[in-house]
Amino acid sequence: MSDITMIRAAAQRLKGHARRTPLLSSPFLDEIAGRRVLVKPECLQHTGSFKYRGGRSAVSALDPEVRKTGVLAFSSGNHAQGVALAAREFGVPAVIIMPNDAPALKIANTRALGAEVVLYDRPGGESREEVGETLQAERGLTLVKPYDEPEVIAGQGTCGLEIAEQAAELGVTKADVLVCCGGGGLTSGIALALEAEAPGMRARPVEPEGFDDTARSLLSGRIETNAQGSGGICDAIVTPAPGQITFPIMKRLCGPGLVVSETEALRAMALAWQRLKVVAEPGGAVALAAALFHGHEIEGDTVICTISGGNVDQAMFARALDTLEPA
Amino acid sequence: MSDITMIRAAAQRLKGHARRTPLLSSPFLDEIAGRRVLVKPECLQHTGSFKYRGGRSAVSALDPEVRKTGVLAFSSGNHAQGVALAAREFGVPAVIIMPNDAPALKIANTRALGAEVVLYDRPGGESREEVGETLQAERGLTLVKPYDEPEVIAGQGTCGLEIAEQAAELGVTKADVLVCCGGGGLTSGIALALEAEAPGMRARPVEPEGFDDTARSLLSGRIETNAQGSGGICDAIVTPAPGQITFPIMKRLCGPGLVVSETEALRAMALAWQRLKVVAEPGGAVALAAALFHGHEIEGDTVICTISGGNVDQAMFARALDTLEPA
């Protein structure tokens, strides 16, 4: 399904739209990690996460006749904002289905990007899929899935193309590339890009404790699920299981998964703030946490890690900063 | 003294060393400002501020025979770190003279970059210039001034070259370019770069209330001083007066200065965190504050502003986040 040709095509379509995020580093982080640490801060991407890449890739790949009736996404978070912005750029409607207990700020942000937000009664047991199917049928909307969709994976893979190129400019051709992993869209996309452009590197998924479905799936060789499908502070990257399309790619290409604690994720957020001057959300900080605090599980002189997003509220951010020594 | 030829030469010397920081934006900030806002986040530069550009430019311009005996800087902040890192990259000694009442963290950070920190007794009235002259004489160190030094101005000007190029890629050729201004090194460097590369743009200095020496100097046409030479939360960009070299450049090229309150700077820090996912220090946020809250003093459909640095402690950052509505 997804392959490097699709990723390169997505990169062409994203040109001039997606930001080419820089590759950051700090000697202070290198010292903590015991090796060189290069950080790809996708929190600086439009809408504050890598999800814009996949959203824009999918929306731009649609036939214009299909696209003009609009797109649909289920999401209470980063994917919704990525799809909403992409749809607005094409001047087509975006309908985002969100639970009615989602944070007011997330609903407001998605609306501010021009999307129509349809709430479903999650606490009351309403099925978002049924709500979505009704909307698709009535209005001819096209569903953009968050990760198990080839054009979404191709869009996320453009992040991997940039990593390969930017690392090569620094003389780095061998490294573990740690990727914050939920359903595996970003991880599988980066893995495909590295296979073609930086075969000395390997992608490795990083997940929070209690939601290590991908790490366990890579160990067992088949899709494993989490006891809980959502929850914890790393909610942005928590999914019930790796995807049907993403998992076979990860199984073929990825190194072993890494698992970090929530406390490690908070501390990585604080260090990203202090040393890199970027804002990470808890789920967006798990790969940096692995780079900094799980060095014994990593190979090579250099480690590369993504910060997948930065959409976090101030109370959670204050918790992260509290992990630092007082100045 | 400083001119576009020097800036272009500095850009060549900085290539592969200084980061090309991206140009960020957010529809949420555009809405607050009432026009398009493009942000150049120099907080993402090495050592967390634009000062690395000038430090690296000056150290790299020295004759190798002169350079090898080492460099000297007076600074308790960003300039010290920029010079320290540049010296370490060339493998030459850096001596930084700091007051003995400087924050322990700043001293530790400068030492961690490989510099030798020499403390002088500021509360006791010791003269840092005398301490510096003694060191220069004894050890043959070369002083790198923080702003009134042509090669430092040239280095800061490379930020202006990038602004001109990155704005042109977005189709922007006319804009006020707001620059966080202390002694005027960054402002005058950017002004020279824009004169050559983007003549439809004009640099404008932004300062905090109570330290608006440059704004008043531009009005009167001669160098004016502040009642206080230091203090306030924007300490990183507070100087007693514009420089002897920087002021004539600013007088010839810059538009009127803007002045913002400390509260506006704190609120701009919070919005940079929330909407751009970058960390600004108070002094580094004054230009964004002007873009967002002083729109009536700005011309054109698009405004460009620098975030000059992000070296801030967590207590001050918490103060900034407290200016946001609760999530």
Q: Radius of gyration of chain A over alpha carbons?
A: 19 Å
Q: Sketch the topology of chain A as an H/E string, one letter per element.
A: HHEHHEHEHEHEHEHEHHEHHEH
* Percentage of residues in helical conformation of chain A: 40-55%
Q: Pairing-aware structural class of the strands and helices of chain A? A: alpha/beta
Biggest sheet of chain A: strands side by side, in what order? 1-9-6-7-8
- Largest inter-chain contact set: A-B, 33 and 33 residues
Per CATH, the architecture of the largest domain in chain A is 3-Layer(aba) Sandwich
What spatial form of chain A do the alpha-carbon principal axes imply? Answer: globular
Oligomeric form: homodimer
Largest sheet of chain A: 5 strands, parallel
Number of strands of chain A: 9
Beta-strand portion of chain A reads: 5-15%
Distance between the termini of chain A: 51 Å
CATH topology term of the largest domain in chain A = Rossmann fold
Overview of the molecule:
Two copies of one chain form a homodimer. Chain A is of the alpha/beta class. Helices cover 45% and strands 14% of the residues of chain A. Chain A contains 14 helices and nine strands. A five-stranded parallel sheet of chain A has the order 1-9-6-7-8, with helices on both faces. The interface between A and B is medium-sized, with 33 and 33 residues.
